[in-house]
Amino acid sequence: MLAAVAFLTRVPIHVRLDGSDVARGAVFFPLVGAGIGAVVGGIAGINALTTPLAALLGVAAGAVLTGVLHLDGLADTADALGAHTRERALEIMRDHSIGAYGGVALVLDIGIKVAALAALADRGDVLRFAVCAVAVARVAPVLLSAALPYARASGGTGNALGQTGWARCAIAVAVAAAICVWLDAAVALAAAAAVTFVVGIAVRRWLGGVTGDVLGAASELVELAVLVTAVAVT
Fold first, then answer.
1. CA 128/CA 143 separation, integer angstroms
2. pTM, whole model, 2 decimals?
3. Of 78, 137, 196, 233, which sits most exposed with the smallest number of CB within 10 A?
Protein backbone atom coordinates (compact mmCIF):
# COMPACT_ATOMS: atom_id res chain seq x y z
CA MET A 1 0.00 0.00 0.00
CA LEU A 2 2.84 2.37 0.83
CA ALA A 3 4.46 1.58 -2.50
CA ALA A 4 1.21 2.36 -4.32
CA VAL A 5 0.89 5.71 -2.53
CA ALA A 6 4.55 6.57 -3.13
CA PHE A 7 4.39 5.63 -6.80
CA LEU A 8 1.12 7.36 -7.69
CA THR A 9 1.35 10.50 -5.55
CA ARG A 10 3.78 13.01 -4.10
CA VAL A 11 2.81 12.10 -0.55
CA PRO A 12 6.14 11.61 1.28
CA ILE A 13 6.69 7.96 2.22
CA HIS A 14 9.87 7.45 4.26
CA VAL A 15 10.27 3.74 3.58
CA ARG A 16 12.77 2.05 1.26
CA LEU A 17 10.84 0.61 -1.69
CA ASP A 18 11.76 -1.02 -5.00
CA GLY A 19 10.12 -2.22 -8.21
CA SER A 20 8.86 -5.45 -6.69
CA ASP A 21 7.07 -3.47 -3.97
CA VAL A 22 5.35 -1.38 -6.65
CA ALA A 23 4.32 -4.56 -8.49
CA ARG A 24 2.81 -6.03 -5.31
CA GLY A 25 1.20 -2.69 -4.49
CA ALA A 26 -0.63 -2.60 -7.82
CA VAL A 27 -3.66 -4.18 -6.17
CA PHE A 28 -4.06 -0.91 -4.24
CA PHE A 29 -3.78 1.36 -7.29
CA PRO A 30 -7.58 1.80 -7.64
CA LEU A 31 -7.91 2.69 -3.95
CA VAL A 32 -5.18 5.32 -4.21
CA GLY A 33 -6.81 6.53 -7.42
CA ALA A 34 -10.15 6.80 -5.64
CA GLY A 35 -8.50 8.99 -3.01
CA ILE A 36 -7.01 11.25 -5.68
CA GLY A 37 -10.38 11.40 -7.42
CA ALA A 38 -12.07 12.35 -4.15
CA VAL A 39 -9.75 15.34 -3.84
CA VAL A 40 -10.34 16.40 -7.45
CA GLY A 41 -14.11 15.88 -7.29
CA GLY A 42 -14.43 17.44 -3.85
CA ILE A 43 -12.77 20.65 -4.95
CA ALA A 44 -14.57 20.70 -8.31
CA GLY A 45 -17.88 20.51 -6.46
CA ILE A 46 -17.31 23.49 -4.15
CA ASN A 47 -20.48 25.53 -4.42
CA ALA A 48 -18.90 28.75 -3.18
CA LEU A 49 -16.93 29.07 -6.43
CA THR A 50 -18.09 29.35 -10.00
CA THR A 51 -18.32 25.93 -11.61
CA PRO A 52 -15.49 26.41 -14.17
CA LEU A 53 -13.16 27.83 -11.53
CA ALA A 54 -13.88 25.00 -9.09
CA ALA A 55 -13.30 22.43 -11.84
CA LEU A 56 -10.01 24.04 -12.84
CA LEU A 57 -8.83 24.11 -9.23
CA GLY A 58 -9.81 20.45 -8.87
CA VAL A 59 -7.70 19.49 -11.88
CA ALA A 60 -4.83 21.61 -10.55
CA ALA A 61 -5.03 19.87 -7.17
CA GLY A 62 -4.90 16.48 -8.89
CA ALA A 63 -1.85 17.54 -10.88
CA VAL A 64 -0.04 18.71 -7.75
CA LEU A 65 -0.99 15.59 -5.79
CA THR A 66 0.29 13.26 -8.52
CA GLY A 67 3.29 15.33 -9.54
CA VAL A 68 1.89 15.47 -13.10
CA LEU A 69 3.07 11.87 -13.46
CA HIS A 70 0.56 10.81 -16.09
CA LEU A 71 0.38 14.19 -17.82
CA ASP A 72 4.11 13.94 -18.47
CA GLY A 73 3.58 10.51 -20.01
CA LEU A 74 0.78 11.82 -22.19
CA ALA A 75 2.93 14.68 -23.50
CA ASP A 76 5.93 12.46 -24.25
CA THR A 77 3.77 9.85 -25.98
CA ALA A 78 2.05 12.49 -28.08
CA ASP A 79 5.40 13.91 -29.18
CA ALA A 80 6.55 10.42 -30.16
CA LEU A 81 3.61 10.11 -32.55
CA GLY A 82 5.51 12.36 -34.92
CA ALA A 83 8.37 9.85 -35.26
CA HIS A 84 8.75 7.80 -38.43
CA THR A 85 10.37 4.77 -36.79
CA ARG A 86 9.93 2.80 -33.58
CA GLU A 87 13.48 3.60 -32.51
CA ARG A 88 12.97 7.33 -33.00
CA ALA A 89 9.68 7.21 -31.06
CA LEU A 90 11.41 5.58 -28.07
CA GLU A 91 14.20 8.14 -28.30
CA ILE A 92 11.72 11.03 -28.26
CA MET A 93 10.02 9.59 -25.17
CA ARG A 94 13.32 9.77 -23.30
CA ASP A 95 13.59 13.48 -24.08
CA HIS A 96 11.77 15.40 -21.35
CA SER A 97 11.30 18.55 -23.42
CA ILE A 98 7.76 19.07 -24.75
CA GLY A 99 7.13 19.57 -28.45
CA ALA A 100 4.08 20.78 -30.38
CA TYR A 101 2.28 17.43 -30.23
CA GLY A 102 2.81 17.15 -26.51
CA GLY A 103 1.75 20.73 -25.84
CA VAL A 104 -1.46 20.35 -27.80
CA ALA A 105 -2.20 17.03 -26.08
CA LEU A 106 -1.85 18.63 -22.64
CA VAL A 107 -4.05 21.61 -23.53
CA LEU A 108 -6.77 19.37 -24.94
CA ASP A 109 -6.60 16.91 -22.05
CA ILE A 110 -6.81 19.55 -19.33
CA GLY A 111 -9.41 21.60 -21.19
CA ILE A 112 -11.73 18.66 -21.81
CA LYS A 113 -11.27 17.43 -18.25
CA VAL A 114 -12.16 20.82 -16.77
CA ALA A 115 -15.22 21.11 -19.02
CA ALA A 116 -16.40 17.59 -18.11
CA LEU A 117 -15.94 18.16 -14.38
CA ALA A 118 -17.78 21.47 -14.59
CA ALA A 119 -20.69 19.83 -16.40
CA LEU A 120 -20.85 17.03 -13.83
CA ALA A 121 -20.67 19.57 -10.99
CA ASP A 122 -23.69 21.38 -12.40
CA ARG A 123 -25.58 18.07 -12.23
CA GLY A 124 -24.37 17.16 -8.74
CA ASP A 125 -22.46 14.10 -9.98
CA VAL A 126 -18.87 15.32 -9.97
CA LEU A 127 -17.61 13.61 -6.82
CA ARG A 128 -18.72 10.06 -7.60
CA PHE A 129 -17.60 10.16 -11.21
CA ALA A 130 -14.27 11.78 -10.37
CA VAL A 131 -13.61 9.03 -7.83
CA CYS A 132 -14.52 6.30 -10.34
CA ALA A 133 -12.64 7.91 -13.24
CA VAL A 134 -9.33 8.09 -11.40
CA ALA A 135 -9.80 4.69 -9.76
CA VAL A 136 -10.31 2.82 -13.04
CA ALA A 137 -7.66 4.92 -14.79
CA ARG A 138 -5.02 3.64 -12.38
CA VAL A 139 -5.86 0.04 -13.28
CA ALA A 140 -5.15 0.53 -17.01
CA PRO A 141 -1.33 0.62 -16.61
CA VAL A 142 -1.44 -2.52 -14.49
CA LEU A 143 -3.38 -4.45 -17.13
CA LEU A 144 -1.30 -3.19 -20.05
CA SER A 145 1.95 -4.04 -18.28
CA ALA A 146 0.75 -7.56 -17.62
CA ALA A 147 -0.58 -8.11 -21.14
CA LEU A 148 2.25 -6.56 -23.16
CA PRO A 149 6.06 -6.78 -23.09
CA TYR A 150 8.24 -3.86 -22.14
CA ALA A 151 9.29 -2.04 -25.30
CA ARG A 152 12.80 -1.17 -24.15
CA ALA A 153 15.70 -3.47 -23.42
CA SER A 154 15.52 -3.02 -19.65
CA GLY A 155 14.34 -0.91 -16.72
CA GLY A 156 11.37 1.43 -16.48
CA THR A 157 7.91 1.59 -15.00
CA GLY A 158 6.38 -0.87 -17.43
CA ASN A 159 9.04 -3.42 -16.64
CA ALA A 160 8.40 -3.12 -12.91
CA LEU A 161 4.64 -3.37 -13.23
CA GLY A 162 5.09 -6.34 -15.56
CA GLN A 163 5.92 -8.35 -12.41
CA THR A 164 2.44 -7.75 -11.02
CA GLY A 165 0.96 -11.00 -12.31
CA TRP A 166 -2.56 -11.79 -13.42
CA ALA A 167 -3.82 -12.65 -9.93
CA ARG A 168 -3.01 -9.15 -8.66
CA CYS A 169 -4.42 -7.67 -11.88
CA ALA A 170 -7.69 -9.47 -11.22
CA ILE A 171 -7.81 -8.08 -7.68
CA ALA A 172 -7.14 -4.55 -8.91
CA VAL A 173 -9.92 -4.86 -11.50
CA ALA A 174 -12.29 -6.26 -8.87
CA VAL A 175 -11.55 -3.37 -6.49
CA ALA A 176 -12.11 -0.78 -9.24
CA ALA A 177 -15.33 -2.51 -10.29
CA ALA A 178 -16.59 -2.60 -6.71
CA ILE A 179 -15.96 1.14 -6.33
CA CYS A 180 -17.85 1.93 -9.55
CA VAL A 181 -20.80 -0.35 -8.71
CA TRP A 182 -20.98 1.02 -5.16
CA LEU A 183 -21.12 4.58 -6.52
CA ASP A 184 -23.64 3.64 -9.22
CA ALA A 185 -21.19 4.47 -12.01
CA ALA A 186 -20.79 1.15 -13.79
CA VAL A 187 -20.58 3.01 -17.10
CA ALA A 188 -17.04 3.93 -16.06
CA LEU A 189 -16.02 0.30 -16.40
CA ALA A 190 -17.19 0.06 -19.99
CA ALA A 191 -15.41 3.26 -21.01
CA ALA A 192 -12.22 2.20 -19.24
CA ALA A 193 -12.23 -1.27 -20.80
CA ALA A 194 -12.75 0.12 -24.31
CA VAL A 195 -9.94 2.67 -24.08
CA THR A 196 -7.52 0.22 -22.44
CA PHE A 197 -8.16 -2.34 -25.18
CA VAL A 198 -7.68 0.18 -27.99
CA VAL A 199 -4.50 1.59 -26.46
CA GLY A 200 -3.14 -1.92 -25.98
CA ILE A 201 -3.71 -2.86 -29.62
CA ALA A 202 -2.27 0.44 -30.85
CA VAL A 203 0.97 0.38 -28.83
CA ARG A 204 1.54 -3.29 -29.62
CA ARG A 205 1.56 -2.46 -33.32
CA TRP A 206 3.42 0.82 -32.89
CA LEU A 207 6.14 0.02 -30.35
CA GLY A 208 5.85 -3.71 -29.79
CA GLY A 209 5.02 -3.14 -26.14
CA VAL A 210 4.66 -0.53 -23.42
CA THR A 211 6.84 2.13 -21.83
CA GLY A 212 6.32 4.20 -18.71
CA ASP A 213 5.17 7.12 -20.84
CA VAL A 214 2.65 4.98 -22.69
CA LEU A 215 1.25 3.74 -19.38
CA GLY A 216 0.88 7.32 -18.13
CA ALA A 217 -0.85 8.32 -21.35
CA ALA A 218 -3.20 5.35 -21.11
CA SER A 219 -4.19 6.34 -17.60
CA GLU A 220 -4.92 9.92 -18.70
CA LEU A 221 -6.96 8.76 -21.69
CA VAL A 222 -9.03 6.36 -19.58
CA GLU A 223 -9.74 9.06 -17.00
CA LEU A 224 -10.76 11.47 -19.74
CA ALA A 225 -12.98 8.90 -21.46
CA VAL A 226 -14.80 8.07 -18.24
CA LEU A 227 -15.52 11.73 -17.49
CA VAL A 228 -16.74 12.46 -21.02
CA THR A 229 -18.88 9.32 -21.02
CA ALA A 230 -20.36 10.33 -17.67
CA VAL A 231 -21.36 13.71 -19.09
CA ALA A 232 -22.97 12.01 -22.10
CA VAL A 233 -25.05 9.49 -20.14
CA THR A 234 -26.10 11.44 -17.03
1. 23
2. 0.93
3. 233
